[in-house]
Amino acid sequence: MKKASAAKKTVSAKKAASVKKASAAKKTVSAKKAASAKKAPAAKKAPPVKKAPAAKKVTVAPKKATARIQGAAPARTVVHPPSGESRTALVRRARRINRELAEVYPYAHPELDFTNPFQLVVATVLSAQTTDLRVNQTTPALFAKYPTPEDLAAANPEEVEEILRPCGFFRAKTKSVIGLSKALVEDFGGEVPGRLEDLVKLPGVGRKTAFVVLGNAFGRPGITVDTHFQRLVRRWQWTAETDPDKIEAAIGALFSKSDWTDLSHHVIWHGRRICHARKPACGACPIAPLCPAYGEGETDPEKAKKLLKYEKGGFPGQRLNPPQAYLDAGGKPAPPLGAG
After folding, report:
1. Cβ contact 171:153 at 8 Å
2. Spatial distance between the Cα atoms of 215 and 299, rounded to a whole number of angstroms
3. Which of 77, 121, 312, 335 is the one with CA 20 to 30 A from 160?
4. Terminal Cα distance for the chain, rounded
5. Of 40-44, 141-145, 197-201, which gets the smallest average pLDDT?
6. Count of alpha carbons within 13 Å of 73, Cβ hemisphere only?
7. Which residues, including other chains, have CB under 8 Å from residue 18's CB and lie 6 or more apart?
8. DSSP designation for 293
9. d(CA 79, CA 76)
């Protein structure tokens, strides 16, 4: 019995020793693997990433729409073109531009001298393909000699042509003003009618001229779509139309009817003074942040300042007898014919 017990103990001891050896072997294998992992070669470096090309410079505009160019250059911010602009956003932007221009030109007015509807309709017909200044320098002699429709209707065409010669196209214009005077006498009792449908029947009077007369002589809202107006509303992306009648309809839909006449003055004044056809003075423009065409003209404030015309550039306006509000704001009356 003692021998059997001793044999069992010997077997148990051998098993225990075998287990210890197996455990030690496992530890040795694990240690070798760890060491092997440490000695593993480092991973290859990734190829260098090419730098993206620098973004193109974005044209920027003065931050505040009411910024002035005197003194230091105004702060600047990126102008976001209105591509994909919603109808609501367009209306808001258009109306804001009009409000800003009203602050810049609070004295905006029709730039033809007149004292009654007859003088205004004649002056507007004469303003075709010439400046309002040239018309204003010419009409004093015309109205001094022919103050009423009856007088002009009975005038000698050759004498009228001589007076109107400085306006250019004087023969055609003489025919128009004598013809519309005769129509006023024969069809309207010598009075200028206050309705669009009647005005456009007069020789030489189209919708543009009719709206000038209605808005400024009768106080009836109208949009004057002249060359300045057409250029600016397309430049501002208010419309892509090119036909004057379609432009009138498109812009009229963006504003309240009561704003139409003053809107016309604001846009036309801005087109004559700052937003010129060939060299717009972008760096001097008070509505630059709202204009998708910013950068088409001179953006340097000091260089742009030299492009300003009329009162902002120190020159007189176009009227010989401008409204008092214009004079109070520092505007100067235009010189008479032959005075410079």
Report:
1. no
2. 35
3. 335
4. 147
5. 40-44
6. 13
7. none
8. T
9. 9
pLDDT digits (tens, 9 = 90+) for 156-192: 999 999 999 999 999 999 999 999 999 999 999 999 9
Helix (H) or strand (E) holding 270: helix 260-273
- The two most distant CA atoms of the chain are separated, in Å, by 163
Q: Classify 60 as helix, strand or coil.
A: strand
The answer to whether 309 and 315 have CB atoms below 8 angstroms apart is yes
- Assess contact for 150 and 175: CB atoms under 8 A: no
- Is 237 within 8 Å of 219 (Cβ atoms)? no
CA distances from 65 to 100, 132, 235, 287, 309 (A): 7, 29, 17, 5, 19
- What pairs with residue 61 in β-bridges? 77
The residue type at 111: E
From the candidates 226, 259, 262, 312, give the one annotated as an active-site residue: 226
Instruction: State the angle between helix axes of 207-217 and 244-252 in degrees (0 to 180), rounded to the nearest 10.
Output: 40
262 catalytic, yes or no?
A: no
0.70 exceeded by pTM? yes
Q: CA 195 to CA 228: how far, in whole Å?
A: 25
Only one residue has tokens 């016309």, namely: 264
Residue 132: active-site member:
no
When computed from its CA atoms, the radius of gyration of the chain, rounded to whole angstroms, is: 41
Are the C-beta atoms of residues 222 and 199 closer than 8 Å to each other? Answer: no
User: Which residue is associated with the tokens 């309240």?
Assistant: 256
* Measured distance CA(7)–CA(178) in Å, rounded: 148
Best CA proximity match to 304, nearest among 279, 323, 333: 279
Find residue 62's DSSP bridge partners: 76
| 78 SS3 class | strand
Of 113, 173, 208, 262, the active-site residue reads 208
Q: What is the mean pLDDT of residues 54-69?
A: 52
Half-sphere exposure of 191 (CA within 13 A, CB side): 7
Give the separation between CA 110 and CA 132, rounded to whole angstroms: 9
